[in-house]
Amino acid sequence: MVVERAKNRGKATTWACQCDCGVQKVFSAGNLRSGASSSCGCLQIELTISRSTKHGCSPRNQRTPEYRTWKHVTQRTTNPKAIRYADYGGRGVTLCDRWANNFENFLEDMGLKPSPKHSIERKDNDLGYSPENCYWATAKEQSRNTRKNRFVTYKGATKCVGEWSEILGINYGTLLSRLNSPKLSITQVFETPIGGIC
Question: In the chain, helix, strand, coil percent, each to 5?
Answer without folding.
Answer: 35, 20, 45
